Amino acid sequence: MHEYEEFSKKWEKTKASMAAMKKEIEGFTEKEKSWVMKVHELAKRHEIELSNEKKRMEADRLHLKADREALNVQQKAFLDEKERLKASLSQATSDNQWLIEHGFQQVVTYLLHSIEFNSAFGDVYKKLLNHGKHLGFVAGYKAHEFGQPQEQSSFYQPQASTILRKLSSRWSI
């Protein structure tokens, strides 16, 4: 009987061990199910995040495309403005050249033919003649005081008035 008791004890031990193993297996099964649920949940979250990231990248790509098109439009406008400025610069350069070559000549010609300029110039001319005559008289009197004859004076030029008239006739065009 001893064998029977021993066998019975072993059998009980085996049963207890089997029950513990079944409980352990059930625990592992539950853990496995929870892990599967977590993995499934993480996969869903990953899919959602990946989808959101794809949408955001697509929106960024569209925004970048719109920015690139706007940049192209601005570059085209810049190039058009550059060409207009080149034409304007060319026109300004030719106007400047005309002003230097012909404009100043016309201004001087108009001045010489204007009544206002000639009357003012005539007044200055008369005052200059009077001042020259006055200086000539003063110099002549001083030279005479020191006993120098008029013909020996360096200021004495009897042909000066005719020379001045000839020069002044050249000035009026």
What is the percent of helical residues?
over 70%
Helix run count: 3
Label the overall shape: rod-shaped
Q: What is the structural class?
A: mainly alpha
Order of helices and strands: HHH
User: Alpha-carbon distance between the termini?
Assistant: 161 Å
Give the mean pLDDT: 86
Would you count the extended β strands for me? 0
| Poorly predicted runs of 5 or more residues | none
User: What fraction of the residues are assigned to beta strands by DSSP?
Assistant: under 5%
Largest sheet: none
Integer-rounded radius of gyration? 59 Å
Describe this structure in words.
- The chain has 173 residues and is mainly alpha-helical.
- The chain is 90% helix and 0% strand.
- It contains three helices and no strands.
- The longest helix is centred in the first third of the chain and has 112 residues, at 2-113.
- The termini are far apart.
List the helices and strands and how they pair.
Layout: H1 2-113, H2 115-145, H3 160-171
